[in-house]
Specification:
mainly alpha, 5-stranded mixed β-sheet
Length: 997
């Protein structure tokens, strides 16, 4: 029995050596397997040096238990104690890989593979691995031999004999040898098939790039040809059988597990295409059908097994096509698609733990390097390496990336790949997720040499390296462009002007010469301003390139910078406020409207960096208070309305910027998922702003002529989209004007005053200036354009009592007081309520009249040449369809259903659904169509700077509309198809609910 003092001493010693479960370790050390060495300091030191001492000790005991005889056990123990190289290698593997410990327990003699420590063992290649697999004649023995070879690779890796690049190359060489052995087994099983064909195995992906992981799919492409005199069809069938058998030999699970999946999905047509093609068939496909990503994949193509001569012919035939990929017409769109990482496919809980696909992950480095290879490898053969780190080094040597940036990326990539290797090595499972368990993180950290506080140090280093990658991912593309025009690093190699233009074209810039001039103007010089610009531009250029019009984004940025360059806060805001620079980049490259509004008052850029709700729409009360205060301070009506229009311009920019940022999303905030919320926010904000502007203009006009009191009470009634809180960026303000003479004022004098107010308001709001005009449309008044602009309340009452038509009742559904005398406005609303919500609802004749009016409008008002299916206002399933359905429901049932008594379309639709007047499914279909059509109209105004009811015909403008609506590059067709489908479904509901079909 162990004395208490001794137990305490051993317990403490085990803790000092890194054991996390000293009690269990003590029991193992006291077991019969370790008799005679349990107190050997050499053994404890060696165990303590491993990634996981507990795991290493447990694996060692299992290995000793598995030895076939006491003499074998003694030989193993003696060698472990006496031979440091074996001790370090064996215990190092046992402390890092439970899977290889399991292999050793099943194959007790394989530890002998680690005894040899000759120079030729330090860096084995394909030939050495082929010797190690030579005796494998079936899938099971191949797996055993493969694990034995893998054991030696892992031992060199965990002991630091090889670095990450050398380890990855050895894994690729072992994969090559394994593919050759598997193909030999397949050929031996079908000699007749083997005799008919030549079959080449082309490694792709990480195997082709000589940078394989411990556990990874091995990507391949097969090329087959008939031997001389053989029928090509039979030869290809034979080659396909051999290729399929070879894949199964590697992939299938046996009593010894599997090796790794062999994946041939990178072949032409993917899994839908034939497994084996002839060289001429491959060539024909790549010449005619291949996409850019397929040429990107071919960067790593390397013949590894089978008929090597045929494989080399394949690579030689396709290589010229690879280096012409950047000249393809659709290269830019394809590149933009590839650059938008598919992070949404990663479960939200895993994004931050993803080493490969997560932000700042391995994919970012690999993609950046491959893109630069495609762009510049055409003219520079030194860049044509399939290995990421070699290609990165060549790019730095040629001046295509900054040397310091390349060093930092190399360091980050090596660390992240090392983490990935250690994670996979533990269970030999294919994963790129950093484990959450602290014990796993401790083992990984210790295996990477982080021993003081492994978990904390690992997470700190991991986050530091991903941060470097995220920061440099964009800088890698754009810093050399700055250097090319501003010569920032004298004496270093830099991009030639032609190479700089090629890069800009590849990244989506249509006018690279102009872009380079802008970059030079912004970044050149030794001023503090130029230095800050050099810090900002690499990131900004990337955000511009992520838009549909990078050239416009860069040009607009230069204009804003020229206008604000001397103000001390501007560049400091972009540099120090994290969101400001990205928000500005999105706004400047999303279309014409927002930049135009900003250029007229560039100081509004400060809104983009206000973290305290700078882009949140302001309420009507606050807007009205600011505008009325500006009116009071102004000298005369012209100056007052100019001030009001200035506030309107600034607030329109705020609304547009918030809409763009919400629709595009940012690196830290995803795009707004609720499209209806975006529509409501814009409609409500623009309507409130318009109401506040009219209130200020009315006050200015009255004060300028009559002082504080107008001779007649005066109110402005919002109609149409204005009354419905649904104004878009380019909407006119539909209104009615009502007045009521004050006591003692003759009606003629009151009428003249009211008409003068209206005339002056319309004039002042349309005066030519730097601010956008606000057009007032009063055509919905009684008698339309033929009737008086302003009526008294009594005149309205008389007209509506005697002459009102059903369409006027329908128009009045949207009436709401927006400015002027509130009491008068309220009495007007009381007057019209019986008209718009008639008791007992509309009669059958009135319903027929509304349907007739709608049918006539559909046939007469659609612009000539417009595609009805894409017209957002008058087309089938468009805004008019949805609104007439809702308004007919309001006219028929508003008297009985209080929820329907609203001026807002979506609110009334929801109320109709709640009252069971329309099914939930139909309401959802109509709401989706109305929201989408409204979003399209807003997008067209943002992109073109002028209103429109249909999609733009210009490809770049159409792409910008798509980006606003959430469609990535190259998906314009999907956008139009989705719109047609949504509108078609809505029209079917309209036919039923409105026309009674």
């Amino acid at each position: 029995m162990t004395a208490p003092g001794r137990r305490s001493s051993t317990f403490s010693r085990l803790l000092r050596h890194g054991f996390t479960d000293p009690s269990a370790a003590e029991r193992l050390l006291d077991g019969p397997e370790l008799t005679g060495v349990r107190n050997d300091p050499v053994l404890l030191e060696a165990l303590g040096a491993t990634a996981d001492p507990d795991l290493a000790l447990h694996g060692l005991v299992r290995l000793l238990e598995a030895q076939p005889a006491p003499t074998a056990r003694r030989e193993l123990l003696d060698t472990v104690i006496a031979a440091k190289p074996l001790r370090d290698r064996l215990l190092g593997v046992l402390g890092a890989s439970a899977a290889l410990a399991e292999h050793l327990a099943r194959h007790a003699g394989d530890w002998q593979a680690l005894v040899m420590y000759e120079p030729r063992d330090l860096h084995p290649g394909v030939e050495e691995f082929e010797r190690g697999l030579a005796e494998a004649g079936d899938p099971v023995s191949l797996r055993v031999a493969y694990r034995r070879c893998l054991l030696s690779i892992a031992a060199r890796d965990v002991c630091g004999t090889t670095d990450i690049a050398e380890t990855a190359a050895e894994l690729a060489d072992l994969a090559t040898a394994t593919l050759r052995a598997a193909l030999a087994i397949a050929r031996a099983a079908a000699p007749d098939d083997a005799a008919l064909c030549r079959l080449a195995v082309i490694a792709m992906g990480k195997c082709g790039g000589h940078e394989l992981n411990y556990v990874s799919d091995v990507d391949v492409i097969f090329v087959g040809e008939a031997v001389e005199g053989a029928d090509e069809g039979k030869a290809l069938r034979s080659a396909t059988k051999l290729a399929s058998h070879m894949m199964r030999i590697c992939s299938e699970t046996t009593v010894e597990g599997s090796i790794w999946p062999v994946d041939a999905n990178l072949r032409p047509e993917g899994r839908n295409g034939p497994l084996v093609r002839t060289l001429s068939s491959h060539l024909a496909y790549y010449q005619r059908w291949a996409k850019t990503w397929e040429f990107q994949a071919l960067l790593k193509a390397r013949p590894v097994a089978g008929d090597i001569e045929l494989g080399e012919e394949y690579v030689a035939a396709l290589e010229p096509l690879v280096w012409k990929a950047a000249e393809r017409e659709n290269f830019v769109a394809d590149v933009q698609k590839m650059r938008r990482r598919v992070v949404e496919n990663i479960p939200v809980a895993e994004v931050e733990r993803e080493l490969k696909l997560g932000p700042g992950g391995l994919r970012d480095v690999e993609f950046a390097v491959q893109l630069l290879q495609l762009v510049h490898g055409r003219a520079d053969a030194s860049l044509r390496s399939g290995t990421t780190l070699d290609a990165l080094q060549a790019l730095a040597a040629g001046g295509y990336v900054g040397r310091d940036d390349a060093v930092q990326l190399d360091d980050a990539y090596r660390f992240l790949r090392s983490m990935e290797h250690r994670i996979q090595l533990y269970r030999l499972r294919r994963t790129h997720l950093v484990p959450e368990d602290e014990a796993d993180q401790r083992r990984i950290g210790r295996s990477l040499g982080l021993r003081t506080d492994p978990v904390v140090e690992l997470n700190r280093e991991w986050k530091r390296h991903t941060s470097v990658v995220r920061r440099l991912h964009e800088k890698l593309f754009y810093w050399p462009l700055l250097d090319a025009v501003a010569q920032l690093a004298p004496g270093e190699a830099r991009l030639s002007p032609e190479a700089a233009r090629e890069r800009l074209v590849a990244l989506g810039y249509a006018d690279p010469a102009a872009a380079l001039r802008h970059i030079e103007a912004l970044a050149s010089g030794v001023t503090r301003k130029a230095a800050i610009q050099r810090t900002l531009l690499p990131v900004l250029l990337g955000w511009f390139a992520d838009s549909a019009d990078p050239d416009a984004g860069l040009l607009n940025f230069r204009k804003v910078s020229d206008a604000l360059g001397k103000t001390p806060w501007y560049l400091r805001l972009l540099r120090d406020e994290g969101a400001a620079a990205e928000n500005l980049a999105r706004v400047l490259s999303a279309g014409r409207l927002a930049p135009d509004l900003l250029m007229r008052a560039p100081e509004a850029v400060a809104l983009l960096g206000d973290s305290e709700g700078g882009l949140d729409p302001r309420g009507r009360a606050g807007l009205e208070q600011e505008i009325l205060a500006a009116v009071r301070r102004a000298d005369g009506a012209v100056q007052a309305v100019t001030a009001a229009r200035g506030v309107r311009r600034r607030e329109l920019f705020r609304i547009a910027a918030a809409d763009i940022v919400g629709s595009y999303g940012t690196e830290t905030q995803p795009a707004e998922a609720d499209q209806g919320a975006l529509v409501d926010r814009v409609g409500g904000a623009v309507s409130d702003l318009t109401a506040a502007t009219l209130a200020g203009t009315l006050r200015a006009v009255v004060r300028d002529t009559w002082g504080d009191t107008l001779p007649t009470r005066f109110a402005v009634i919002g109609m149409g989209r204005f009354g419905g809180h649904e104004l878009g960026y380019g909407s006119d303000a539909d209104v009615l004007f009502v007045h009521e003479p004050r006591n003692g004022v003759p009606e003629q004098s009151a009428s003249e005053a009211a008409n003068k107010v209206v005339s002056e308001m319309r004039r002042l709001l349309q005066l030519p200036s730097a601010d956008p005009p606000l057009l007032i449309d009063a055509d919905l008044r009684p008698e339309g354009k033929s009737g008086p602009l302003v009526r008294t309340l009594k005149s309205y009452e008389a007209y509506y009592r005697r002459w009102s038509l059903v369409w006027e009742s329908q128009a009045l559904l949207r009436a709401e007081v927006v400015a002027g005398d509130e009491d008068l406005g309220s009495r007007f609303i009381e007057l019209i309520d019986p008209l718009r919500y008639p008791a007992e609802g509309l009669g059958d004749d009135a319903v027929r009249e509304i349907r007739r009016l709608k049918a006539r409008m559909e046939s007469e008002r659609l612009p000539r040449g417009a595609d009805p299916k894409l017209h957002t206002k008058l087309g089938p399933g468009g805004l008019s369809d949805v609104e007439w359905v809702v308004q007919l429901l309001q006219l028929r049932h508003g008297w009985a259903e209080p929820g329907l008594r609203t001026t807002r379309t979506r609110e009334a639709l929801a109320a109709a659904c709640a009252a069971d007047l329309i099914s939930g499914e139909d309401a959802e279909i109509l709401d989706e169509a109305w929201v989408l059509a409204t979003r399209v109209r807003n997008a067209v105004m943002l992109v073109r700077g002028r209103a429109g009811d249909t999609f733009p015909s210009d490809p770049r403008e159409l792409a910008a509309v798509g980006r606003y609506l959430g469609y990535g590059p190259g998906h314009v067709g999907d956008m139009l198809d989705d719109y047609r489908r949504t509108a078609r479904r809505a029209r079917a509901v309209v036919e039923t609910l409105f026309y009674g079909a």
